[in-house]
Write a structure and sequence with these properties.
The chain has 11 helices and 12 strands. By secondary structure, it is an alpha/beta fold. The model has no long low-confidence stretch (mean pLDDT 95). The structure holds zinc ion. The site of zinc ion (ZN) has 5 residues, from loops.
């Protein structure tokens, strides 16, 4: 069993032809050996409005493939009266009722601990919806919540929103797997050995409510840039890591989603152990999202 916790549908990209339909996503899953995938909307935030994948779009797509696709919802923290007191309760309850298992991909280009975000995080925790976020390095990136070097804003949210599960993703998150993060590469894909204990392992070790997905170039880079460290990291956090691809374009071939082959070879080679592999492949997702096993 393999569950991808991070997939998209919609029109991701600049050309009108860049649509990935639910049927195309399922065909890719068949080709790549993925049994089920969480589908994450992006268009409910203004940063992603043009991508044609609102929560309602995702719910409709998942209803067409109920055995394969699992819906997330996306809620923008600037909804409603845009104050730190906005009540999202009815909206979150509705999305839960309709089958959504998490909030994401959380992409507002705001500081991670902006009061509007903190308000939503707290209510996500009360609703039992984990928040999968994309972390970026700067406020002019166009999308993604923003943190400083060392991830102090994420740390504050983990501490103050202890009932909320957070799932880390994105370049500014994964570059912090190392204690040495060149400023120019915070939002990129640093290469070479991991040095010391970065903010990511430190926070994952200290906070039960921080999880992470292995999706995209950033997740793949983090566990492969220093292979021995990567294997040790997977072993250490085998109860909190989630397999994911971030598949988002119809023309993406397997080569464009290297985590699929990398994770398969880790499983085949036995270097991590079968039990740890099964947790990362599906059991952690089943536990975190309350899925049918
Ligand atoms: Zn994504």
């Amino acid at each position: 069993m393999l569950i991808d916790v991070h997939a998209h549908i919609g029109r991701i990209g600049h050309r009108r032809t860049d649509t990935l339909s639910a049927a195309q996503l399922v065909a890719k899953m068949d080709a790549w050996g993925i049994d089920r995938a969480c589908v994450l909307p992006l268009a409910d935030c203004p940063e992603g409005w043009y991508l044609h994948n609102t929560t309602d779009d995702v719910l409709a797509a998942c209803a067409a493939f109920p055995d394969r696709l699992i819906p997330f919802c996306l809620v923008d923290p600037r909804f409603g009266d845009a104050t730190p007191r906005t009540d999202f309760g009815d909206l979150l309850a509705e999305y839960r009722e309709r089958g959504c298992v998490g909030i994401g991909e959380f992409i507002p280009n705001l500081p991670f601990d902006d009061p509007l975000c903190m308000n939503l995080y707290r209510q996500a925790g009360e609703a039992g919806l984990p928040v999968l976020f994309d972390l970026t390095a700067t406020l002019d990136h166009g999308y993604g919540v923003v943190d400083d070097p060392g991830l102090s804003r994420l740390e504050r949210a983990l501490r103050e929103c202890g009932d909320t599960a957070f799932i880390g993703h994105g370049p500014a998150f994964w570059s912090e797997i190392s204690a040495s993060v060149p400023e120019a590469e915070r939002g990129g894909y640093p290469q070479g050995p991991v040095v010391g204990e970065g903010a990511v392992p430190r926070l994952m070790g200290a906070h039960p409510n921080l999880w992470a997905d292995l999706s995209a170039g950033s997740g793949h880079n983090a566990i492969t840039r220093d292979p021995a460290f990567g294997l040790a990291f997977l072993h250490r956090f085998q109860d909190k890591l989630l397999f994911g691809t971030d598949v988002l374009r119809h023309d993406q071939a397997a080569d464009d989603v290297p985590i699929v082959a990398t994770f398969q070879s880790i499983r085949d080679e036995g270097a991590l152990g079968a039990a740890a592999c099964e947790k990362i492949a599906h059991a952690n997702a089943v536990r975190l999202f309350g899925l049918d096993a």
